[in-house]
Each structure stands twice: as structure tokens, then as C-alpha cells.
Amino acid sequence: MRSRGASPRRPSSRRGAYFAGVCARTEVLVAQLAPKHTKGASCVSVFESVASLVYLLSKLVNVGAFPSAPPTAPSQPSFFASTLDTIRGRLAGDDACVATYSAFWSELLLAMPSIFTLQSILASLFSHLSVPKAELDGSPLVRGAVKREAQLLGRFVGKLEKGKKDLWDAVTAVILGRNWTQMHARVFVCWAAGAQKGSVDEDALGVLLANTVDIWSSPDHVRHSLLAKHRYVTLLLLTTISYLPPSSATLNALVFSPRFVQSISQYIEHLDPVIRRCGMLVAEELARRTGKKLDFDDWEGDDDGKAWARAARALTTETDANAEVVSREAELSEGGQEGAAAPLDVEDLLTEGIIEPNKPTLTLADADAVDSDDELVGYAFPSSSRTPSPTPSELREIEADPTLRVGKMKIARPVYLAQLGEMIRSTSGLKSEYENQEADKHEMALAVADELIRRKAGYGTELEENAVNLVYGLVGLQDNYEIEDFSGKRQTALNALVACCPEKAAPAIIEEFFKNQYSSEQRFIMLNALALGAREIAGLPLPAAAPQAFILQEPDGVPQQTPAAGPARQTIENTRENNAPPPTLARERRLHVQSPSKSKITEVQRPNADDLAQQLRGTSLAPKVQFTEVAVECFICPLLNRFWLFLRDEQTREARTAQRDSLHRYRGAGAGLILSAPVLAHLLATLGVLAHAARNAPAWLA
């Protein structure tokens, strides 16, 4: 039972009829108020009538009376499904009543309080246009129908003049932000051009061309849009170009636009040949319109979108605005009724053999023959409409083809440390135009980082100003592009930072080490940089093995080598030298044991490049700061202080959650954290290296 006071629910069929009547009466109200609006009525009454109608149309938008697609059921309300035929009749002709009615509708649309409300009305209007089905047909009948719909838009919405910014914003958002057919693209361009024979609105076409090029040349559109969207935007661009005269300044500016030239390269690099030809077609047509010569000479055949490209090229040789307008009645009489179909017989819809299929009988003698793997046959799936993916060999050929690298920017070698930091860690906050070259930028930065940092060590304050930023970038850098020797190059760069600028780099690394955002490998690299950089500053020999050998793990999880291994071996050697016998006794022992050596000619071994670099690093390029001066202040004390603060915070967190169940308790010694066994062992080993290198410091005894 219905509760007291509740309104009865309107049936869906009655609801559709109700809103159809409301929409029809709204259009009648507009037609009645339009003459009064232009006959010099008082300003107050004019304002009230416009405001009331705008409010009514806004309410109709909110209740869904302006759908983005024609309704498929009678219960669905649609303003233009109920009134568009009437609006067509009122806008037909050239008398004063038509001009009054048209101007009043244009004023109502421009008075909408929200641009989204205006976009909803325009999208519903565009979807209810009576456009032909043959999208690339260039016959006079189809061109006349396109011009008829364009004139309807011009009289109902208004001319797309350059000064109407609000209208342009709404129109371009609907035209370029939604999916339309290619026939709609022809209608939109004809509307912008003015839909008049012999005259073209170049200013409006220039605005439409600029907005279309922004979408067409966008890297996201080139890479991710579907084929239907590509063809729609490409035809919109080609049709706009065809309306502009060859001497247009807009076309000449577009030819030399860097963004347009770069987008042509992106289209040519596309793996789908159908989409690739969209860019080639636009490049050829624009060059032809501006008196230049360009021919890709690959348009014969019907595969890979060649037929569509030829049809689009033939369509743009003429403009729809120069055709004669064709009425809907003439279009239906000459082209046949749209949507009407000849009656079909039920037998025509049936496939032979479906009603009474042949049922083969299976005997026991055939069972063994059927039950065999050799008799299995795969299902025959229908061929896909998508372009097949390229094979690995085709990808290698495409990668090696020099013609597909047109306009590709080459990464320049950084000269300053600020450029190096920007390549590793962008701080601008803006998207780069060449984001697809991030891998090349990282590879170049890692290749030159060590050399550039050491070269800048003795020049002014450039290294001190950029050291902290380089530490943040190198520590947080991820191997997303599988760069060769990524860990080794990053390690040497961090070692150079610590060795050449310990006052800035070492505290920054220690500060980052105790943050919870890094993995165990990144923490090992930070500790290695502190240990190896400290040994280099102190003038101690560096390990012959690669720096990343410190973080290699055995299958049981025990490190193969630790940073403290070198100092341990050095201590053993010193102990052995202290316990050696006196020189006289050792000489007498050698005289008894060794036989006198004969004179021999030996080959002089030339030092290799690594040995020379090591010698240079210890002589001419030796750091100006002695490790004994910075060991306690920049290495040992910050590391100890930060560790005890971190340990105190972790114990406090564990104490706060100790009363909870085991699932929700906080544990500071989890896998990959600082207090885990491998990381803590590496931390203590690094502290041992730092203490050993600082044994000559004044604070050593303390």
C-alpha cells in the first residue's frame, strides 16, 4: 500500500509523453517571446523573459531532457527529438521572423549560467542532426545535406565568430572531447566556415584549426587513441585545411610549427600502418596546399588504410559549402528512406543445415580413432579487426630504420652540475615535451656523473650548491629502463660526491639512510658510498673489486665481503710486521736459505688506465679537506646520533602498540628495514671503516 501523502509514481510511458509535451511547449514559448524580445520591449521584461527561459532550459538539462544520444525508447525524454523538426521549419527561409527566432535562440544559449549546461545542449543537438551514412561520399546530394545541417547549426547556435570565447570553449570541448562520426566532422567545419558559397570565415577556421592541431599532435592522442578517433580528427584537420586558401597565413605558420613537425615524426614512428598513414596524408596535403612538394608514394592498394586515405584526399578537393542545399524530402526521395528496410522472409535469416543438422553416429570401432591426439583440430576463430602485433624481427627492423628517427632529439652531454641534477631528478614540476627520452637522459647522466663531479671539485662553489640535490636524485633513482651497469655507475657517482664534497654529501646521505622509503639495496649503496668515500679522503687504498661486491649475497644471505674486510686485513698485516724478527737475523736467515740471484732482464709493466686514474686520484686530484678534519663532524657523530634517535623512535612505536594483538603490533626489525640483520650488520661494518680511517683524528681517543 502507498503511504499517506506520497505522490503516485508516473508510469514510464506517461513520463515520456509528459516530457515530450513540456519540451514542445518550451519551444512554442521561445517562438512567441522572440518577436516581443526584438520589438523594443522594456529592459526589465526582456531580462525576466530571458532569465526565465534560461532557468527552464537548465532544469530540463538536469532532468535529462538533453541526452547525448538519440533516445531508443519512448519513455526517454529528449528535447530535440520532440522539437528539432519544428525548429527546422521555423529556421527555413530568409525573412525577418527567421532572423528574430534565430537571434533569440543564440542569446538564450549564450546566457546559460554554466558552460557544462551549454555543452550538454550542444552535444544533444549534434547527436540529433540528420547526417548521411556515407561519411566520405563527395556526391552533390551528400554535400548538400552537409551544408543544410551546417546552416541549421549556424542559425540555431549562431556563427562561430572569433570574439565569442565562451561559445568557442563550449563548442571545441564538445567537438574534440567526444566521439563523433566523420560526417559530423564535415558538418562542423562547414559551420565554422560560414556555410556560404564563395565566402569563407578565415578567422573562425583559424581558431578551429589551432584547437584541432592541439589534439591531433598530442603524443597521448597519437599513441593511445583508437582508429575511429584518429580518422575523425584527421578528417576534421584535412577538411579545415581544404577550406583555407593557399595564401593563408595560418597554413604557412602551421607548416613551420615545431610542434606540428614533431607530431609528423611521431605518426611516422607509429607501429600501426593505418595510423601512420594519417600523419603522412596530412603532411602531404598541407605541403600541397602551401605550394611545397612532398610525396611518400605509398598509396596504391586497399590494405593498411590506403583506400580510406585516397577517399579522404578526393573528398577534400572540393568543399561542402560550395554545394547547393538539399532538403530532407529531396534527400529521402533520391537516396531512399533512412532506416527503412525491405521486408525479409524468415527463411532468409536461417542458415542451411541449422534446422535439421546431420547427426553422425559414432560406433565402437571408431572410438580408438577419435580418442587420439593426432585427430584433435583447433577451433577456427574469426579473424580480428585489430592490426596484428609486430614480430620481434619487425621491431628490430623498425628500431634500426634511420628514416623513422626524424626529429628525434639527441640528449646533450651536461656541462654543469645543475644540468646533471635536472637529468637525474627533475625539479621543475612540469611535464617535459620529450618524456619518452627519460631512459636516454638517465643513461647519459650516469655515464658522465663521476667524471663531471670530480672535475667540478676545484672550481668555486658549484659542487657545494648542487651536492645535496645530486644525493637525493642518485639515491632515489630506480632502474626502470634496465641501463647497463646501473648500480655500478650510481655507486661511483655517490662515491665521488662523498670524496669531493664531504661536508654536504655525507650528512645528506646519512639523513636519507634513516628514512623508511628506501629498499635494502639502496641502503647498502648509501653505506658503501660513506665507507669508500671516507677511505678515499683519508688516502687509504680502495678495494680492487667493484664497489657493488659489498652488497652481493650468498644463497644463505651472508654477505660475501664487507667494508670492514680491508681494515681487518690491514690490522693483521700491521700485527705481523710488529712481530717480525730483527733485520740482522732476517738477513742472516735469507743468506742461509736463498741462493745468490743472477742478473736477469725483466720486462717493465706499464700501468693500465685504472692504475693511472688511481694515482691521479691520490696526487693531483686529492681532496683539499683532510678526513681527520671532517670524520667526527660529518661522518661518525651524525651516523651515531641519527641511529640512536631512530632506535628511540622505533622503540616508542613498538611500546605504543604492545597491547594490541599480534596482527596490529608494530615491529621495527622487519625485513628490509634498518634494524633487520643484514642492514644492521652493514651499518656496523661501515662504522668500523669510518673509525679506522679516522684513527689519526684529534677525537680518536674520545
From TrEMBL:
Listed GO MF terms: Hsp90 protein binding; telomeric DNA binding
Entry keyword set: Membrane, Transmembrane, Transmembrane helix
BP-aspect Gene Ontology terms: 'de novo' cotranslational protein folding
Residue ranges annotated for the Telomere length regulation protein conserved domain, each copy included: 414-534
Keyword Transmembrane included in the entry's annotation: yes
Pfam families reported for this sequence: Telomere_reg-2
Similarity comment: family membership: Belongs to the TEL2 family.
Protein name: Telomere length regulation protein conserved domain-containing protein
Organism: Dentipellis fragilis
Taxonomy of the source species: Eukaryota, Fungi, Dikarya, Basidiomycota, Agaricomycotina
